[in-house]
Amino acid sequence: MMRKLVMILALGLSLQGCGNTPDRADAAVSLKAIARIPALLAQRSAGDVDPAQLATLREALEADGQPVISVALPGLKYASLMAPYYPSRDAMTWSSPGYETVTLKDGILQSSRGFGPDLMASAGPGIAQVSAASGSVHRVYEYLNGLDVPVQMDYDCDFAAGGAQRVTVLDQVYDTRLVVETCYKGADRFENRYWFDKGGKIRQSEQRLSPGTAPMLIQRIVD
């Protein structure tokens, strides 16, 4: 399955020594250290992956004790682990060893850099509204057009409960509840999907990066 394969590709880097620090220089050193660590998993088919390797990677990440997420874009054949890079107001910017970044506020995607079709800025719901799984919100996304001119796209979005589901994040199973956000502007429609764990955190999500691309899969591995 594509999602399973994407998750495996996201494990291509074993992450240790990631500093959760607002200092960019220190964070950059940590990210370089990540990149030097040999890959535990090659980009192989799902059936070739040894579950023991997944368990070993999780143990290493948890022992390190720093937050870690994985980010994947199937349409762009991109997947990577990310570490905290620097705080941005009340959000956190996460970075891969290649310095692609995503900025998340309580797990909700705010912006991205380094992916090509980036989300420059956005305005939308807070985690409380998403978690409630009801009501509506007006969303604003900002992109750059071919002339590097900001273009704003507005959507009306509705929230609905998607029921209880189990999700697997790096060899660990979580009982979650799914919240589906359906956004529309005329014939243009898409969904953002959020899986909340028992602690009320977004453990996994699929969120729009830009029009014409598959949703970005974000999984929180270590809190």
Structural overview:
By secondary structure, the protein is an alpha+beta fold. It is built from 4 helices and 12 strands, in the order αααββββββαββββββ. The protein is globular. It comes from Stagnihabitans tardus. This is Group 4 capsule polysaccharide lipoprotein gfcB, YjbF. Pfam families: YjbF (PF11102).
Q: Which stretches are poorly predicted, pLDDT < 50 over at least 5 residues?
A: 1-47
Number of helices: 4
Distance between the terminal alpha carbons, to the nearest Å?
A: 26 Å
Give the overall pLDDT as a whole number: 80
Query: Radius of gyration, rounded?
Result: 17 Å
Q: What's the helical proportion of residues?
A: 10-25%
Please provide the count of β strands.
12
| Overall shape | globular
Strand content: over 45%
Q: Class by helix and strand content? A: alpha+beta
Strand order of the largest sheet: 5-4-3-2-1-12-11-10-9-8-7-6
Major sheet summary line? 12 strands, antiparallel
The ordered string of helix (H) and strand (E) elements is HHHEEEEEEHEEEEEE
